[in-house]
Structure prediction request, 115 residues.
Amino acid sequence: MIAKNMSVCPLCGGPLKYYDSVKRVVRTKGRATKWIKIRRMKCEKCNHVHRELPKFIFPYKQYEMEMILGVLEGFITPNTYGYEDYPCEMTMLRWTAQKSQLLLWKQNSKGGCFK
Prediction:
């Protein structure tokens, strides 16, 4: 995973070139889902393919960052009106267990490198 508009491979430092794009689902407030296009970049040196993630989603998560951070900060709970069963309680518990990893990723993503 790399930051948007990053032009250097985080693994070897080689130049990145546009490879293709894929669609990814993002779950948002009110049970809405939207599909976004994620660009994939290929390193010209090591041939590794990286996905270019926008700032509003975590890697490997379907829900938008704002909702996940709301759960981690305690604003959204299984008892919160409008979120009683979306996301489910087990998903919220899993995010809470991954809290340090998710917050570290968010902090590192500001610097531009998503590994």
Summary: The chain has two domains: 1-54, 55-110. Residues 55-110 form one domain.
